[in-house]
Structures are given as C-alpha cells and as structure tokens.
Amino acid sequence: MNNPAHAGELVSEWLDGLKEEGQAITITELAERIQVTRPLLSRIINGKAPVTADVALRLHDALGISADLLMRVQSKYSLWIESQKQRPQIQPFFASC
C-alpha cells in the first residue's frame, strides 16, 4: 500500500466538481450546513484531521457522497499512516497461514 488518499481529498474534489458545474459551495457554507466548525472541515479537507463516521454521514446527507466510501478511504489512509510509524515487535499467538 503506497500513500493512499485521505478522505478529505475526495470531499475537496467533490467541491471542485460542483464549482465546475456552477454550483460552488464554500467550506463555510458546507460547515454550516453539516453543523461542524469551519476549522474542523478545513482540517479534514486539507488532510489534517480524519473523516469520522459522524462527519461522513453528515457529508452524505448534504452532498450525497457515499459515507461508506469516505470511511473506506479514511481507513486505508489511517492504516497506512500508522504502518509508517515505529511500532513494538509483537509476537503472534498463532503461526500465520
């Protein structure tokens, strides 16, 4: 797995697509609509904060973005980030198949 996308990138691309279609939505407008703070939404879109299940559902309700897709993308990103960190050596209970 090589540096997967952060789920916020999908939200950013979705907003860019709406802008190209003449239906621009600002981060402030979206934050107000989904009832989160603008700084939080900005951090998510810029890949500095994770998309939580709650936010994924709110984005789905407001924009129609698949909450399941956002969570799968976020999960892959989060696992990749953690895999890049120094971790203790863990001895398995069972041999791998």
Features:
single chain, 97 residues, mainly alpha, 434 Repressor (Amino-terminal Domain), 5 helices, elongated
Short summary:
The chain has about 100 residues and is mainly alpha-helical. Helix content is about 60%, strand content about 0%.
The count of helical stretches stands at 5
- In total, the number of domains comes to 1
Large-scale geometry:
elongated
| CATH level 3 topology | 434 Repressor (Amino-terminal Domain)
| Main β sheet profile | none
Low-confidence stretches: none
Distance between the termini: 21 Å
In helices, the fraction of residues equals 55-70%
Order of helices and strands: HHHHH
Within CATH, the superfamily carries the name: lambda repressor-like DNA-binding domains
Give the second-level CATH assignment, the architecture.
Orthogonal Bundle
Q: What portion of the residues fall into strands of 2 or more residues?
A: under 5%
Radius of gyration: 16 Å
Written description of the protein model:
The protein is mainly alpha-helical and 97 residues long. It has one domain: lambda repressor-like DNA-binding domains (434 Repressor (Amino-terminal Domain), Orthogonal Bundle), CATH 1.10.260. Helix 4 (53-63) runs antiparallel to helix 5. It is elongated, with a radius of gyration of 16 Å. Helices cover 60% and strands 0% of the residues. It is built from five helices and no strands. It holds the Pfam family HTH_3. Keywords: DNA-binding. This is HigA family addiction module antidote protein.
